[in-house]
Amino acid sequence: MSLMLSPEPKIRRRNTGARVVVAVLLVIGLVATRYTRDWAIDEHNAIRNNGHPGGFTASNSDSSLSSMPSFATALLLGGLRGPLVMILWTSSENQKQKHDLEDFDTKVEWIRLLQPEFDTVHLFQIWNKAYNISVQMASLRNKYTTILDAIDYGQKVERERHDDINIITAIAAIYGDKLGTSSEHVYYRARIRRESQTLTRVTFPPQRANEFRTLAAKAGWIEDASPISLDEKTQVDRVLIEPSVAKQLVTEFTGLGVNFAPENRPAAERNDPSWRRVRLDPMLDQNGYILPDLLTPRYPRPKDLPASAPWYDGSTLQFLKQYEPFPYGISTLALAYNDYKRGQYLQTLWGEHHIQIGDTVIDARPALCLKDWANDEWERGRRFELRMWGLYVPESDDPIELEQPTAAFPFDRATPDKADYNAALYSYAMAARLFHDARIEFQQHMKKYEANASVYFIHVDDTLSGEQMMLADHDYLAAASASGSQRQKLLESAAREYRDAMRRFAVTVLKYYIDEPVMIKMYPKDPRTGEQYNRATIESADPSTYLSILQAAKAATARYLTDPVTHRYMQERDDYHDDRQQYLTYLDRCANRLSELHADGIVVRP
Amino acid sequence: MYPHLHNLPLLSAGELLANNWGWLVVALIVIFGLFVAGASDVMRFSFTRVWAISGVCFDESIRKRVLWITPLAIVGAIGITQFQRALDEQDAVRQSLKVCLFATAVVVMLSSIILACTNLPKEIESRVIYTIVTKPITRLELVLGKVIGFSRVALAIVIIMGLFTWAYMRISAHQKGQQIAYRLQEGDVSDTERGRLVEYQQTGLLTARSFWAPDELGMFGAPPDPRTPIRIISNQGDEDFVVSYLGDRAVLFGPPSDNVEDWAHQGIGENGLAVRVTLNTRRTGKADDQPPTTHTLGPTFGPPPVPARLVPPRVSFEILDQDYNDIDMGNLMIGGSSAGELVQNIVAYSKTRKINPAHSGAYVRLSEPAKLSDGSTAQYAYAWLPPQTALALFNHPAFRIRIVGGSANVDYLVGTRPVDCFIPEIKPGEIDIDGPHATKINPLPGVDGAEELLAFRGHLGVHYDQEMNGGSDSPNATAMYSFRNTPPPSLLVQDQIPLQISVQVERSNSDVEAGHEDATALAVRVIDDATKKVTALPNPVLVESRLPAYFSIPADAITTGNFDIIFHCMNNEESIGLFPDSLQLIISHQPFELNLIKSLFIIWMMSILVIIFAVLCSTFLSWPIAIVLTVLLLLGHWGVDQLADVSGPGLGRQIVSDFKFTDPALSSVVSTGVDTLSRILNGVSQVLPDTSKFDAIEDIEQGVSVSAAKMLEALTVLGGFGVPAIILAYLVLRNKEVAP
User: Which residue of B has its CA nearest to A191?
Assistant: First the structure.
């Protein structure tokens, strides 16, 4: 039974005609939108990139909502984009306050998609995730995952807005500050090192597990970091090990059912919209070289450009190629350096400026990061040294504790653990090189920004002393595996380098960490001019006198800071105590090593 | 949050009427509409004709291609789920489910409101209505036919969207299940995550759980010994205990008086309220609460003086209201170590009317241990709430007395009946605090036949949770969840009873060991109430802040439905925030399909209410206005609820203050006007349906079985507002001339 009256045929025809006109107009509008949008983006890029290639283009980007221009998104949402974003912001911030993180990431993702062109939004959210959200997690692993999520967010934005100095330096800050130097950095640094490598999957029959444990431990495998698990289906044991370990094991641990293969992670899950990163993607191949994808230039270097001229080629790890290979993984501080360096080039060569950070800060970051990376290698070298000689390795995040235990060990003391010996050699050599490169970076920055140069004097001095110390430690250890004249040569160079390091540490203390009254009273006069040395001029004194001046200054400081009534040393009034103590610890190590070398007949002029 | 109040007085007939006026209005409308005004139509009522009309509505809607909206909604739902980011696989599935059900609700509501609002006005406008009303069809049958017809359309949409939701979620859950298996196999999981993922793998990502909540949460300074009733609170405010009393005016203020003012000045309003605490203490570390010692000037001879014996620790008193908010802090009370000392302090107070801080209830030193007749000892502390302060209790249905330890490094051993409350007798020259002339006030009885309602609490966290310190900071701090009369769990997995816990973790340490994720660990023990047997779980439960963790207790650890589960945090420099419902016993699993049907049924009930209101509005309004009014009627109650915090009393004064009105007359007008409007708004919202009762998403999204109570709530709102709305629509249409 139908109670509807059927419409008149004429009216229906008229309606159909009107609909066709509207549909045609809509199609024309959409086509026109495409061209006007491309034109607007080209204009925007031309202004933003100062005439340089690249820049963010929707056409380059992933196919996603955020690649749509804002007016198109607004149109799609019926003009409700603004209110929707406001609701999402309020709601996500409320959830954050209440520590309710369910669907929080979805809201942040929608904000990103709806406000793709606002860098301040992205900077806030990267910081928000890395700091505010990660701190709500109790376990280190979950904190780490949340920080990776912040990096993922930044990298997604960067894929859509290539060469954006704001985003690139925000990612660098997460690698450098949050993962590299926060109080939990011991855990984070270890994870990044491990996960940056293409790990090797070893499978073997369960009955050979103990044999594997013994051999792998000798090769540097740490079970806590990569435990053995049983594959329920195939009933074989499986473990993921680092390539440096695999290289040694592959010849020793063989037989039926033993298999070594590079880990291959399925890419399918990445396409799942709800996929969440729980570990870093590998950046290195099995030989420790950066994966080609990460070095493919987007802006190939012009052939007529002089070799010394800087060029930003747009590849992801452009500035780490020079440090290949990385047999023990990439440091998080190296990743920070790479991104800060990209930011520096975008500022210097492309004329981009960070919206929140000054030019001088951006320019100084690569140098500071290189120095931090060098210190990281220094610390790793010490830990390997302790381990190779079978000593306890403290888990403390204070590297000073690591200096003394092996200081007085002879270079030819037996080293049962060759894997750690090789790793220590690598770390010391890399640290020396990084200190050298950091010094060049600092000097270039100080030349560019002379007004702020004094801020970096101490850093330059640290790179000088650090480089000598690392070279000395490297040669001292390397002598153990050398023989004949080569060994002699290495021991002599180690002695020279320890001596130079001592002088540099001593002059650093004299320049920065001696109280003014002590300095006035104790510093000698320049025999050439007759004027007393001060902080600024003490370096021009004869280097062979640095140590004796330091000894005198130390004694004078002790007298100066002794209570005349109680005869107690008043450490609380010693502003430089902690800083000075650090350098004195290094000096002690050098002195111990020199004594060892002296006992072996290696003598250098003081 | 805490045990409910008991023994509230029975409601009077007037109060009963006032509390149920809504139902009375419904009854009146039904009686008038069906049996007075529409008796003749009721007599002629035929369901066949109603069904025929509903069939017309249904067919017409299908012809209008209403169902074509469902593919659009499906595409929209799939599209939105592509932009989601989840904490884990379970979160991803839940978010997808939420989107699908939200899309279902939106599509059903929109189509219902548009169809139902436009139908009658368009039929009247196009005169199609003539063909109906000229037939022997009553207006009641017409209205009901329309409602049923559009409800059938809504049901069709719900079924289509439901089938899509089911299929999409099944596929999604299967994919996520594979991801979980892969992650578990590869070890890409944290220690805290592993247990959760294994649980999801075993039970499925869509399975709904039915929970049983504990009866009580207690926070203690040491694990309770099941063989004694003694419980321990420790230190300075780490834990406290609270005893609850009924605010019965007849008890507290004496027999009622015609003049309320006079009544309030009787009983405790005249003599104040006295409180006596009885407990024992033991020091666990260095005492820092001792009075200063005096030194003798000049040389001393003979052996060095023997150090004085430590004086007893202190406690602090506080009066809370029924919601555990402060009414009177301890510094508004007068304290004493004994009844005699309290009397002296009251006398001193009566002279100056000022409370000496040294004698306040904020820090009262306990008496020396006194021997009791049974050989045990007890220490006492007293506090008195002056009459003018006690007056505040006149307006509270209940009050609570909170006792906090006042000294560091002290365990306070609390037995049964630790607090006694009295109305003292105060006569010139004679004060009886707790003697024969004082009137004793009985506390509220506790659950399960306990003598009093006694709650042990931890210190309050920033999220209003109760915090328990971990590791060596508080080596004995314990949280205890008590389950009483729990039904025997139908769900046993390998002779284990499953539980779920979700806590707030605050950590201040950075005690990091390379290679270790340093997960927060809770040691768990189970106490069987019948046998007093204590069973410790071999492995700690690893928890992450605000994320559920699953563990189980052996079924043979308990013999009845009465048992306690106690937790201790093993990590240093961490605190665990617990809510009374942080721990839940999983009593059964329910298939996703059944839970989905229940959720969809709630959505359908909501759509029926929408249709009824839309039909009602369309009987007297043009369709665009009808749509607006329908939306307003449906969202009115919800909207006022959203403004609840700001639209309460005092809004007028706040606006006057915010806008800095200086003219008193204008201020008064604005203040009164705003308050009146606010009252009207709140009043109107009371006669509008509470659509929040149709919450079809929250439970299923959280993996909780949709309860029968929830469905009944929705059905009640539908019946309570739907039936009178249909009758009103019928009455309006009956008196409306729609055809010549």
Answer: B515
